[in-house]
Amino acid sequence: MSTEKNFNNTEIAFALKSKTELQKAHFLFKIMASPTLVSVGSKVALVSLKLGLPVKGLIKNTIFSQFCGGETKQECLPVIYKLNKKGVSSIMDFSVEGKESEADFDAAAKKKVELVKFASEHDEIHIVAMKPTALGRFGLFQKVSKKAELTSNEQEEWNRIVARFDAICKATYNAKLRVLIDAEESWMQDAADDLVELMMERYNTERLTVYNTLQCYRWDRVDYMKNLHNRAKGKSYLIGLKIVRGAYMEKERERAEAKGYPSPICASKEDTDLTFNTALGYILDNSKDFSVFVGTHNEPSSYLAMELMEQKKMERNNNTVWFGQLYGMSDHISFNLAKKGYNTAKLIPFGPIKEVIPYLIRRAEENTSVEGQTGRELSLINKEMKRRKA
Ligand SMILES: Cc1cc2nc3c(=O)[nH]c(=O)nc-3n(C[C@H](O)[C@H](O)[C@H](O)COP(=O)(O)OP(=O)(O)OC[C@H]3O[C@@H](n4cnc5c(N)ncnc54)[C@H](O)[C@@H]3O)c2cc1C
What we know:
Structural class: alpha/beta
Distance between the termini: 26 Å
Largest sheet: 8 strands, parallel, barrel
Number of strands: 8
Radius of gyration: 20 Å
Helix content: 55-70%
Bound molecules: flavin-adenine dinucleotide
Number of helices: 16
Strand order of the largest sheet: 1-2-3-4-5-6-7-8
Strand content: 5-15%
């Protein structure tokens, strides 16, 4: 592989990390390599926070500082400025989950609109992120996805969800920024897809504002994307897609098995990789109609995107292609991409420690279960430690 297309330069990857920070990351990834430690640690952290034991400082200095930008927007600024110095943009994501009341949903929408304003005041931020079920009840998304008839109260509740989506997308459009809308479980996703399509129709007419998320571990997603493309052509708006593999694989498979319907997930990792790469190819073949956000820690898919852009003679900083990784993971991909001139961003979750714990546990579990991820992080950190010693 040419040096142009490799992410092996650990000096670039860890330029922002001091010796102590590198040692801390090494220690954390070592712990995350053990499913037992992750499982016990997660339970201890949850119980300690519930009991009000003084563990906040410990969590904040370890796993929180590895994967989150801060507890507030302001607290994230030093991270955002540091990333910007290396050409990496920041996507801020207020990462509070599992709320269920109308007051919580209104508050979440208000916070997102404030976040868009904050982003518009900082040149280092071009994109914000949001999650559909932060703005409305999961059960209602599920019912709308089933095309079940809603009661008049439910219809009003759904209208409020539409209004919250609209307020955020409109604020993003007015600020000339972009918003990534997450994809979640397949049994609520149809409702979210239809709603995001409506937002694209409203706010992607003269420029790209809204991205939906395509979870390529679902075998039906390439067809979904092609149908979306056909519908958009008829109505002349741009399509924004964040392409990812998907984060709920075990849950999806278990539910399908328990309820006796065919699993929506590809039969193998190879099939998921193929779906991801096929979607990427289709989008770049039709780049006049699409903008893509390549959300992955997978090296071959990242190389493929670079290769296809080169074949199509697209400028590296062409605004229709962005790459993104989660803060605290795969720095070798992010910083090497940015150094080569590609549009690159880190997704930075933030929020009060107690509230982001579910996100942190997911990250720890993912690093335990995603084959090779922790090993990859550790070997890169080891390589950089050795390089610095030499
Ligand atoms: C910026 C960003 C935004 C994200 N947003 C979302 C989002 O909105 N919604 C969401 O669901 N996820 C989201 N994710 C998470 C993402 O879906 C993946 O879980 C994660 O990135 C790991 O996939 P990968 O492409 O990085 O790497 P890889 O390590 O190459 O792939 C791991 C993934 O492959 C798939 N996989 C693994 N084994 C199998 C198997 N046996 N059969 C079939 N498929 C398999 C799973 O999806 C697994 O997560 C996001 C990730 C990033 C970086």
